[in-house]
Amino acid sequence: MRNILIIITITLLLILSGCSKKPENEASIETIDGIQYVHNTGTPLHPNKAVTLEEDLSIGGQEYDMLFRPQKFTVDQKERIYIADYLDQSIKVFDPNGKYIKSIGKKGEGPGEFILIGDLTILPDGRLFVMDRNTRRISLFDTKGNYIESYHWTERQGGLIYATDSSCLFTVYKFGEENPMEGRRLFVKEYDFQGHEIHSFGEFKIEKSKTHTIKTGKSITSMAVYPPHSPRSIFAGDPLRQHLFHCVNDKYMLEIYNQEGKVTRRFDRPYTPLPFTKKDAKEFYDYYDSRPLEGIKKMIRGLSMPSVKTITSRMFVDDSGNLWVETHEEKEEENQIFTAYDIFNQKGFYEAKVWLNIKPEIIVKGKMYLMYNDEEIGYKLLKRYQIIWNDL
Fold it and tell me: Which of 19, 42, 203, 314 sees the fewest Cβ atoms within 10 Å?
């Protein structure tokens, strides 16, 4: 009887120890000074998750004779597609099947017109938000594309991170007096639509640059050159939850700012930076060797090349609030180059790692959108892909 009890006790201990064993992909969480830290493992929560993409729409080319120089675009929740055309400075609207619906605006300085279309996005309430870079003017249009109102700003902004129904987040550059480019500073600030600053998220890291000055008669032009993989701040925004994602890309540490501009969460994962190779350096040199200016070429050859690559150069948030981090990891399959994307959920947990042979810009209702330069036909096309999730 005693032997039986010993065997049962040992069996129970083994079962309990097995149950308490921490999974290899389970993150650890700690709170420091009111900020929650999520330390992910190198293995995502769904390690077998993969993506298959099926192209189901292409807008552009000869059959779209109303689309001339497509550039930036956005997509609303009804899957209508808004493409900024830089030739006639209008926004062409297409239905989910790619059928042309109408144009919004035209070239000009009047109400609802544009000189140089910059950022455009759909606000959470469905209105279209457009920033004209030349006139520093924000214009708003209703869900039918009718002009509502516009606001002139006194200062030029950098890039739009996200916009809510009543405010917008922009990167803001401040320039040095003696050497404007080398004295640059980077901030993120929230403004109301009238251009009044609501608050600042603070100063962020800007990549180092070298400046080449060109003198032509009495005019002086400065050109900035950036060494490859110079550490800098990378941003992504979630307008629905009013979250700002940020990282300094020489470390795999990301952080979430709330709508008041406070860091509420930081999350990371183990990551070994990729080496910066001689092939990478050659590609960098070759790009500038094709330029006509000898001074630029000489300056490029004098730059110090990094030993490793940064973690990422781009992040974006899908309409479910997941953060996609585009890494510099690549692999070749069937003569195609695939890039690794790390996906984190709203709370910073490492969900999945997928490989894509395209560069998605927007994800809406399970579909990826991007602008694609087709060199064979000489047109820039908007492409849409159905996302099919697979569990391998």
Answer: 19
Neighbours of 138 (CB within 10 A): 25
Domains of the chain by residue range: 57-264+370-387
Q: Residue 332 CB: number of other CB atoms within 10 A?
A: 9
At 10, the pLDDT band (50, 70, 90 cuts) reads very low
Question: If 0-12 CB within 10 Å is exposed, 13-18 middle and 19+ buried, where does residue 218 land?
Answer: exposed
Please name which of 29, 25, 57 lies closest in space to residue 372, comparing C-alpha atoms.
57
CA atoms within 13 A on the CB side of 302: 11
Would you put residue 348 in left (φ > 0), alpha (ψ -120 to 50) or beta? left
Domain 57-264+370-387 belongs in CATH node 3.30.300.350: no
CA distance 225 to 257: 31
93/116 Cα distance (integer angstroms): 18
Q: Is 37 left (phi over 0), alpha (psi -120 to 50) or beta?
A: beta
Instruction: Dump pLDDT digits (tens) for 250-260.
Output: 999 999 999 99
CA–CA separation, 104 and 144 (whole Å): 10
For residue 200, give every residue at least 6 positions away whose Cβ sits within 8 Å of its Cβ, in sequence order, or none: 187, 188, 189, 190, 261
The mean-pLDDT minimum among 20-34, 135-149, 151-165, 333-347 falls in 20-34
CA dihedral (286, 72, 123, 155) positive or negative: positive
For residue range 146-197, what is the model confidence (pLDDT) as tens digits? 999 999 998 888 899 999 999 999 999 988 766 656 678 999 999 999 999 9
Say if CB 175 and CB 158 are below 8 A apart: no
Tokens, residue 92:
């062409």
CA distance 160 to 170: 5
> pLDDT at residue 12 above 50?
no
Smallest CA-to-CA distance from 253 within 340, 155, 350 is with: 350
CA distance 247 to 266: 10
Give the predicted TM-score (pTM) of the model: 0.89
